[in-house]
Amino acid sequence: MGLLRAAGVVYKPVEQLDLGPDSNEIYVEADIKAPRMGGLLAKIFAWILESRIFGALAFYILKRLNRVHKFISNATVEEPPMFVPLHPYVDLDEQEVIEIDSDASPAERVQQAMNCLPLTSENSLDAFKFSCFRRWTIADYSRAYRNGEITPLKVAERFIYAVHESSSRPLSIAFFINYDAEDILRQATESTLRYERGAPISALDGVPIAVKDEIDCSPYPTTGGTKWLHKVRPCTGDACCVARLRSCGAILVGKTNMHELGATPSGINPHYGPPRNPYDPSRISGGSSSGSAAVVCAGLCPAALGVDGGGSVRMPASLSGVVGFKPTFGRIPHSGVLPLNWTVGMVGVLAGTLEDAFIVYAAISGHLPSHEPTTLPPKIHFPLLNSTNPISNIKLAIYGEWFNDCNEEIRLCCSNAVQLLCERYNWKTVEVTIPELEVMRLAHYVTIGSECSTALSSHLENFRGRSEFGWDARVVVDIYGAFNSNEYIKAQKLRYRHMQIHNKIFAKADVIVTPTTGMTAYSISKNALKTGELDYVNGGTIIRYQIAGNFLGLPAITVPVGYDKAGLPIGLQFIGKPWSEPTLMHLAFAMQALCITDYRKPKVFYDILGKK
């Protein structure tokens, strides 16, 4: 197809890019050329892509129409490739932090995190009379257990009843792919006995925590949302992050639902049902950590683990009205996680509050197993959220055209939230230009697609897994396999290029602030229930602000800041410098404090801890 070769972009050196507010660099909007497909149309499209006659032509047309040829395949990029987004540790001299002993056990780190939180009342559960909606926190569970008001065993029984009830609704919420009532009760009984002896392991002892079904957790198989992957890749034990939570006494309550192979941001799974949004069960909860977002939103757990390869923790957190936290690449061990996207994926935390995200992060962070790629081990600092001295002189970078590329309700809500934050703490916004964002999105897609295709290739060669895919995931895997080595190398060159661009932005500001998604949760179509759904246009809108966190390995956090007219949650995102987790948590905590009195109760909510 040489005669039809699309001209490629010649990228000028980063040093020549103007990143200031008056830059002549043009904001290129996403222009995704792909119809929404579900049902029969998704099946037909899969057959076309897999056709020996039409497949190659279809892939060529898709790449050309969606500007992969222009921005990636045929582009001239002078920068060297960066295959892994590893960041050398730099002491950022952050405000109001404390350094943590790197050899501290997970339980010791949890206690140190608790010591960083503001003092809370020791009142009983009955004494809490909230004037606004409030989810039970890890501290609430720990306090109630210590005071003898309720036991982990009683909480486990309520949890099991709630999960059963949720599947009996007219619209089943589909929180979990697997949960084992017997195993949950066993863990809860052991925790109850520890409290009776006056010897809980940590504040997490007896607290229910859910795990995305992309992370190994005994005694469950790890399906990755498929019907077949666990048959060729058996789970042999806990992932490192799960083992750390278990060592703190947490009750691991099961494997949450997810989009098959994390393929799209909708979270819809044709095999196990769509994890529905507790704020409106007719809508998506977001993906791919959809079940983890839904269980936290609905009050079943104060926190859950997810994996974020392309916003897959932050997007569902935002759409479901909870906190979503993705640390710096390399901060949390990845061992025991399905190796679907090893240079962009990262274990993250979804939680009802920033404090709970912090506590779980404290438990699972720390030294990495020696076989994982890393630079020198980074120091661990925790934010002193109980400090009476708010952090000062914070500069928030905003790229106006990008920030405003969302629906009007989100734009107004997030703009007002940033303004409120700056007025309250006397922080400043810095207008910047971040060029080539659409290029970065496409380079990330080539990267995550190539890595996923490579990870699955040996399984698909020796197993009939493709025929057991949902049709949406089948199409996505077909597309992933269409990228070649030239495109992958070009994408890694662009990764290095964008790392340099973002380093220059961070020389001007402490964080980048954006809406978390470009739209709120959309409706689940009936024809997606059995085949899955391909909706690249809505997917591109949801993922618009996510890419730097994954492609460049940067830490990022989303916190709920409001609702649209339909009552659907809106999130605000902070993207930080490498290793700046404490500053991000300070910012999210400050934002949460200004919005928490306006938080609303979801339509589907279970009061697992409260008295009945």
UniProtKB/TrEMBL annotation:
<dbReference type="InterPro" id="IPR036928">
    <property type="entry name" value="AS_sf"/>
</dbReference>
<feature type="region of interest" description="Disordered">
    <location>
        <begin position="265"/>
        <end position="286"/>
    </location>
</feature>
<dbReference type="GO" id="GO:0003824">
    <property type="term" value="F:catalytic activity"/>
</dbReference>
<dbReference type="Pfam" id="PF01425">
    <property type="entry name" value="Amidase"/>
</dbReference>
<protein>
    <recommendedName>
        <fullName>Amidase domain-containing protein</fullName>
    </recommendedName>
</protein>
<feature type="domain" description="Amidase">
    <location>
        <begin position="178"/>
        <end position="584"/>
    </location>
</feature>
<dbReference type="InterPro" id="IPR000120">
    <property type="entry name" value="Amidase"/>
</dbReference>
<dbReference type="InterPro" id="IPR023631">
    <property type="entry name" value="Amidase_dom"/>
</dbReference>
